[in-house]
Structure formats: C-alpha cells, structure tokens
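Exercise 7. Predict the structure of Hemoglobin subunit mu from Rhinolophus ferrumequinum.
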Amino acid sequence: MLNAQERAQVAQVWDLIAGHEAPFGAELLLRLFTVYPSTKTYFKHLGVFPDEVHLLSHGKRLLEAVGVAVLHMDNLRWALSPLADLHAHVLRVDPSNFPVVLASHLQGEYTVEMQAAWDKFLTGVAVVLTEKYR
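Solution. The predicted structure, encoded as tokens:
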C-alpha cells in the first residue's frame, strides 16, 4: 500500500502526534460533529453536548487505534480486525469521515508529501474498517 518513503513519512508524522492523542482526537471528534452532525448518533455515550473530559477520553482512544495502525502498517487487516468487527457488527459506524486536524497543529512540519502519505494510509485504514460491511 505504501512505499518506503511514504511509510517513513507516516511514522514521522506519528512521532509528532505521539503524546497529543487526547487533544488531537478531541478536536477530530468536534470537527466530525460540526461537519457531519448526524454522526453524533454514533456517539450517544458522549451525550448531546459532550463535555471536554469525554471528548478527550474518546479522542485519545480514537488516536491510540490510529497509533496501532501506524505500528502495523504492513498488516492493517490483522491489527484493526477487532476494531473492524466492532464498527461493522456492533456500532455500525462508517469510519471514512476522518477529518484532517494534523495540518492545523503541525503546520510547517506537516509537508505536502506527508499529507499525501497520510491520506493514502488513512484510506487503507478506512478500507480495512469498512470491508466487513460487504
């Protein structure tokens, strides 16, 4: 899926994200809810107006799952299988609505090449997470 240079760029961006999973993830969720308000129905446990603690907690879990995917880029299907089962069979959530927060936080460190590599990587993650719907 990714060539050696793209894999290195994904890993480099993840190194910049590491340690910031909760705030980045919370912002991803807030942007998701703003752009796609109907997605709030998939997060009923967060309530109609999620508080910061819940957003940070769930945002951290969300990005920790992305971190697992980064560590296992060569075998996303295996690494994400439990999460794919959960999304397809229990939650029935389509994870393809993954907004980009990286550029706003990483700014100059997040190059065009890194963005292209991450787009390709996240497409692979979305494919794995949604393939059990078929």
